[in-house]
Design goal:
Order of helices and strands: HHHHHHH
Strand content: under 5%
Number of strands: 0
Distance between the termini: 54 Å
Largest sheet: none
Helix content: over 70%
Length: 163
């Protein structure tokens, strides 16, 4: 089977960009990583594994490119940009509370065990299914579900203790 990279780009660009934005929290970096994801997909299209779907494969490439960026910068994503854009129709107080909650979640995530953090981010920010997450990790769908729910419990527990 040959992959039509142009069709992949048209079909998945926005989903991959949203996934990457959830990780790097920087629009210009997310755009660059998303572009590089499709370049890398084009170069390595012969190695595409038919056992996973195209979107999962693209997210795996994107995730690795994000980690490359973090290694180059020697730091994690800047959490200060979380929630910069105020949602329309919300009061200042509601927007402030949402930003504070979002920041607290990211702060808790930053200190969590890597597998919990990554599964939670893939599910919430990347909007991946448990099946897609399981394929990225090479684990079962049940493992992805359990890991995500444990991550949620840990986040809630840590947020409750910080109140």
């Amino acid at each position: 089977m040959t992959l039509d990279v142009e069709k992949l780009y048209r079909t998945y660009y926005l989903k991959v960009y949203s996934y990457v934005m959830g990780i790097v929290k920087n629009p210009s970096a997310a755009e660059e990583i998303t572009q590089n994801t499709f370049v890398k997909a084009m170069v390595s299209k012969d190695s595409f594994n038919l056992r996973s779907n195209e979107y999962t494969w693209l997210c795996l490439i994107a995730k690795n490119l994000c980690y490359d960026l973090f290694r180059e910068e020697g730091k994690k994503a800047d959490l200060s940009e979380v929630g910069e854009v105020a949602a329309e129709g919300k009061s200042y107080e509601e927007d402030f509370i949402q930003k504070e909650t979002s920041f607290m979640i990211h702060k808790v995530l930053h200190d969590m065990d890597e597998r919990y953090k990554e599964v939670f981010e893939l599910r919430v920010f990347g909007e991946l299914s448990f099946l897609e997450i399981s394929k990225i990790f090479g684990k079962t769908e049940s493992w992805a579900r359990v890991t995500y729910h444990r991550a949620r419990l840990k986040i809630k527990e840590r947020m409750d203790s910080n109140e």
